[in-house]
Amino acid sequence: MDQDNWIVHVAEARKRLIIVGICFIVTFAAGLYAAPGILLYLKSQPLAEPIAWNVFSFTDGILIYMKCALIFALMFTVPVLLYQLWAFVKPGLTEHEAKSAFPFIPVAFMLFLAGLSFSYYVVFPMMLKFMKRMNQTIGAIETYGIDRYFGFLFDLVIPMAIAFELPVVILFLTRIGILTPDTLRKTRKYAYLGLAILGSCISPPDFVSHLSVTIPLILLFEISVYVSGRQWRKMQSSPSGS
Question: Which residue spans traverse the membrane (predicted)?
């Protein structure tokens, strides 16, 4: 009987992985089609328009093209992956647990998009202007390669988008009992220090830019503490403790 259950679980996991794989292939193909338009849109933005996207090897253009398609595919595949993961574990959850876990999927996706937008429209322009100003200060001749431009862009916006998942991660850890609101409050000063260090690492070294990145990160942490507290009180007040 146990072996039969194991076979059923493996077959179910295989089916859901195939769905995720098909979704990735389809969205990657769509990303290949959309990549030129996306890249041209990024090039047309006021910040990037005066910058010449030079290529220094034959493969620079195709690599950026493929990276753009890959990020496009991942952006739409991750929600499907999260849903398939939820659907896979749903039979082992109570009805209440299944319903309470499902909203994590759209919320995580929306927070990722919010982090992506904030980092691209706020943090990235500050970083680019600061770096250009520094180069001009020392009299450097600015010749930018397309691979360096997008490497710098992706290295900045992707970690920032992931950082915006903090409320969902903390809420999930609270939901399974690893974190409590008291623990979060006791570690608040250490969290502030860590977020300040993170903000200084991904923002220009001037006070205004540092605050404009660090304050949203701290607000995210405080939102996380608030939603964690609400979830914890709800868990404590429910008859089953969940």
Answer: 17-42, 62-89, 101-123, 156-178
Cα(183)–Cα(210) distance, integer angstroms: 27
Cα Rg for the chain, rounded, in angstroms?
22
Say how far apart CA 24 and CA 43 lie, in whole Å: 26
For 185, 186, 207, 231, the CA distances from 179, given in Å and listed in that order, are 11, 11, 33, 11
- The DSSP-derived string for 20-81 is HHHHHHHHHHHHHHHHHHHHHHHHHSTTTTTS--B-SSTTHHHHHHHHHHHHHHHHHHHHHH
Query: Which of 68, 63, 40 is closest to 147 using CA atoms?
Result: 63
pLDDT tens, position by position, for the chain (242 residues)? 466 667 777 788 888 899 999 999 999 999 999 998 988 888 887 777 777 778 888 888 888 888 889 888 988 888 888 888 877 777 776 676 667 667 777 888 888 888 888 888 888 888 788 778 888 888 877 777 788 888 788 877 887 888 888 888 787 777 766 777 778 788 888 888 888 887 777 666 666 667 777 888 888 888 888 877 777 777 677 655 54
**Residue linked to tokens 């608030």:** 226
Q: In degrees rounded to 5, what are phi and psi of residue 213?
A: -95, -45
Name the nearest CA neighbour of 65 among 91, 85, 37.
37
Q: For the chain, which residues make up each domain, given as ranges?
A: 3-236
Q: 145 pairs with which residues across the strands?
A: 54
